[in-house]
């Protein structure tokens, strides 16, 4: 059988867990036993089918065993009942323990509160002790003061006694003094009679002394006045110097004022200049923008010009373009025919100034090469005297620029025309074999 103690379990929770596992094991064992018995009962019905005795005896043994098992079952049932009771008792004990635990917790909280109260009380007691010490010190100080007061009181009492004695002595002295005064008054009356004569003498002497003192004082006053006069004179000189300084200062101040005004005017002018500078700066910025645009445009135009030049016809080297024709003044001397051949070698002819503008241009071109040389150009009357024609065979038109008296076909042998050394834009007919510089013209070349 299983028995439980009545009240407490020193092992606590671990003991209770051991008991519970034990109960569960016993319950499993009980269930297993019941199962065995039931199987044996089923088996016990079998012998009816057996005939031999051996089997019957075996069955008898089995029945006995079953009876024993039945007894065991009963014992187990009793054990289970006892265990249930023990379990109930354990539960009750557990509840009691829980209640005890709660009470202990509450007691613990109360103890904590009490501990806090004790700490506060301890702090209060410390404060009270410190107050008590301070009070003791104050009490000692008061006792010392009291002792001093007592000593002062004793001294005052001694002084009072002395004062009383002094008062008595003073009364005696007063009486003596009154007696003395009376004697003194008598003496004075006698003395006054003697003094009457003496006073007159003394007054005279006093008057003389006073006069002497007045004289000395007058002298001192006189010296002081002289010193004052000297001081005054020096002060006057100083004042005069200060006045001069003041005048100079005034002049300086006026000059400074004028300078200030001039500075103000300069400042105003500078401000105006500054404004102008600002405006100029703005204008410059605007101009820079314009300049930038212009430059850009110029670059574009130059580029375009370059492109156009690439496509335009150009003059041979050394020739200058004039109204779509190229001209060149040569600085070598040739006959008219030699000059014409030289121009032909360049792909052109001798120049043909068929209008006033071209004539002026050619005169200028020849002068750029030489001022003192004559220049052939392409006009002649070699085919028929008096009938002038250009190098391309066309007849001389209405425009002509003969020098006065020309053409004169001097000696009947002048059939070629040139610009003479003087009057470069005027024409002269000359001997074609004469040597002169010359001017060629050519058509521009296509690139
Ligand atoms: Ca002629
Ligand atoms: Ca001539």
UniProtKB/TrEMBL annotation:
Pfam families per the UniProt record, alphabetical: Lectin_C
Keyword line: Disulfide bond, Lectin, Membrane, Transmembrane, Transmembrane helix
Xref: Gene3D superfamilies: Designed four-helix bundle protein, Mannose-Binding Protein A, subunit A
Chain positions covered by the region annotation Disordered: 222-247
UniProt cross-references to InterPro entries, sorted A to Z: C-type_lectin-like (IPR001304), C-type_lectin-like/link_sf (IPR016186), C-type_lectin_CS (IPR018378), CLec_Tetranectin-domain (IPR051663), CTDL_fold (IPR016187)
Transmembrane portions of the chain: 29-50
UniProt domain C-type lectin: residue ranges: 322-441
The UniProt record lists the keyword Protein biosynthesis: no
Top-level taxon: Eukaryota
Molecular function (Gene Ontology), one example: carbohydrate binding
PROSITE patterns reported for this sequence: C_TYPE_LECTIN_1, C_TYPE_LECTIN_2
Designated name of the protein: CD209 antigen-like
Species, as recorded: Branchiostoma belcheri
Gene label: LOC109470707
């Amino acid at each position: 059988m299983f028995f439980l103690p009545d009240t407490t379990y020193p092992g606590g929770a671990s003991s209770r867990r051991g008991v519970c596992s034990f109960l569960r094991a016993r319950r499993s064992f009980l269930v297993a036993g019941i199962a065995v018995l039931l199987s044996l009962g089923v088996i016990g019905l079998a012998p009816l089918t057996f005939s031999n005795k051996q089997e019957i005896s075996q069955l008898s043994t089995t029945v006995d065993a079953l009876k024993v098992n039945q007894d065991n079952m009963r014992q187990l049932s009793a054990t289970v009942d006892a265990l249930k009771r023990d379990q109930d008792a354990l539960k009750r004990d557990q509840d009691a323990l829980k209640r005890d635990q709660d009470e202990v917790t509450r007691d613990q909280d109360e103890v904590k509160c009490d501990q806090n109260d004790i700490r506060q009380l301890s702090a209060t007691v410390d404060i009270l002790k410190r107050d008590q010490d301070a009070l003791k010190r104050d009490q000692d100080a008061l006792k010392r003061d009291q002792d001093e007061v007592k000593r002062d009181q004793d001294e005052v009492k001694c002084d009072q006694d002395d004062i009383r004695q002094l008062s008595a002595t003073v009364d005696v002295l007063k009486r003596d003094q009154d007696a003395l005064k009376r004697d003194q008054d008598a003496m004075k009356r006698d003395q006054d009679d003697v003094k009457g004569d003496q006073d007159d003498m003394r007054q005279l002497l006093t008057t003389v002394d006073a006069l002497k003192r007045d004289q000395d004082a007058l002298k001192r006053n006189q010296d002081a006045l002289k010193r004052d006069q000297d001081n005054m004179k020096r002060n006057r000189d100083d004042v005069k110097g200060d006045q001069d300084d003041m005048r100079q200062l005034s002049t300086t101040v006026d000059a400074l004022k004028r300078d200030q005004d001039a500075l103000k005017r300069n400042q105003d002018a500078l401000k105006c200049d500054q404004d102008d500078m600002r405006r100029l700066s703005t204008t410059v910025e605007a101009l820079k923008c314009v300049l930038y645009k212009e430059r850009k445009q110029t670059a574009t135009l130059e580029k375009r010009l370059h492109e156009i030049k690439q496509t335009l016809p150009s003059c041979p080297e050394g020739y200058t373009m004039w109204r779509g024709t190229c001209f060149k003044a040569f600085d070598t001397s040739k006959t008219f025919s030699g000059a014409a051949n030289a121009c032909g070698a360049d792909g052109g002819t001798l120049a043909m100034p068929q209008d006033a503008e071209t004539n002026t241009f050619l005169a200028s071109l020849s002068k750029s090469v030489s001022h003192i040389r004559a220049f052939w150009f392409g006009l002649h009357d070699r085919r028929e005297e008096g009938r002038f024609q250009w190098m391309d065979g066309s007849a001389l038109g209405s425009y002509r620029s003969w020098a006065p008296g020309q053409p004169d076909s001097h000696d009947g042998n002048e059939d070629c025309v040139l610009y003479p050394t003087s009057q470069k834009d005027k024409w002269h007919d000359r001997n074609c074999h004469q040597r002169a510089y010359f001017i060629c013209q050519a058509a521009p070349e296509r690139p």
